[in-house]
Amino acid sequence: MVLAAALAIPAALGSPGPGFQAADPDRPTTTSTTGPDEQEATGMVDRRHNPLVAKASFGWLPEVITGVEYGVGDHGDYALAVGQGEYPPMIWLAVYDKEPPLDRLGKMGGQAVSIPAKVGSHEGYWVTVDPGDPLNRGYAYLRWETGDGRWAEINAYYLDFRDPQQALLRVAADVKVEDRAVPLPLHISGLPDNFRLGDVTTLRRPELNDGLPWAVQLFYTVNGANVAFHVKPAGGAPPRFGDPVCKTENELLACVTVDRPVAADLGPIGGAQGLLDRVTLLGLDESRWTDRVIG
């Protein structure tokens, strides 16, 4: 039996340097063969204006899922459907340019085998160390061809709902594989040319975020220093590192942190305060968030 109801997840949101909250050491890591020039030429999402571009998005999700998080950058590209509690259900989604090895991380603790599965109209398979258990003892991997030469994978665990095997097949069948700029709650008027993107992450777990429903972090490297933007609803604590410079606007709190200010050399643009002055906060209403975050 497949759960009949799905939670409506807000489209906007679905968490590196000091302050990076690695949600899972086995998070998917992906690389893309499409460069910025090719993206512009083919009309794809322009990453110069929104650094948070999801390669795939969830559709139907079990009702125990309460939010979707996204991450891109040095620590991996992923979407994460997550619940709440001490051991919340987690469904990681990633897209690979080519089919990964069965045990792509070498951490499954046994001989990995595949069990064929049909994911919508696409051929796929479960990856498990137990040929009699597609769910791999509760740490499930389901992989399928996307139809354009790439492969998608969901890795799911802590699945406390009825008939998880059929539920995961339904989740996978409703995944949409295409680039999508994820709207964010801030606009930055511009960044200096020497800012290099590290990671962009969103967080939808109040237990990791001062009890607040979400947080957004954008991490850049500048001359080897880490410079980050942090945004969350007003009332949360500022970061506990990087000598944060903060402001509250439209019921949101924004902070800029710099871990090595001498190396970052932000003086010509007014330092961390000058960066913060470039930020406009768009409020709590996620329908007003923007997918043109920079420029």
Task: Describe the protein's architecture and organization.
- The chain is mainly beta and 295 residues long.
- It is 9% helix and 34% strand.
- It is built from four helices and 16 strands.
- A hairpin with a 2-residue loop joins strand 14 (245-249) and strand 15 (252-258).
Task: Looking at this protein, list some descriptive labels.
mainly beta; twelve-stranded antiparallel beta sheet; two-stranded antiparallel ribbon; 9% helix; elongated
Task: Please sum up the structure shown.
Helices cover 9% and strands 34% of the residues. With 295 residues, the chain is mostly beta strands.
**Shape by Cα distribution:** elongated
Strand content: 25-35%
What share of residues is helical? under 10%
Number of strands: 16
- Number of helices in the DSSP assignment: 4
Supply Rg. 20 Å
Topology record:
Blueprint: H1 36-41, E1 53-57, E2 67-73, E3 78-82, E4 90-96, E5 113-119, E6 122-128, E7 139-145, E8 151-157, H2 164-173, E9 176-181, E10 186-188, E11 196-203, E12 215-222, E13 225-233, E14 245-249, E15 252-258, H3 261-264, H4 271-277, E16 279-281
Antiparallel strand pairs: 1-9, 2-3, 2-11, 3-4, 4-8, 5-6, 6-7, 7-8, 10-16, 11-12, 12-13, 13-15, 14-15
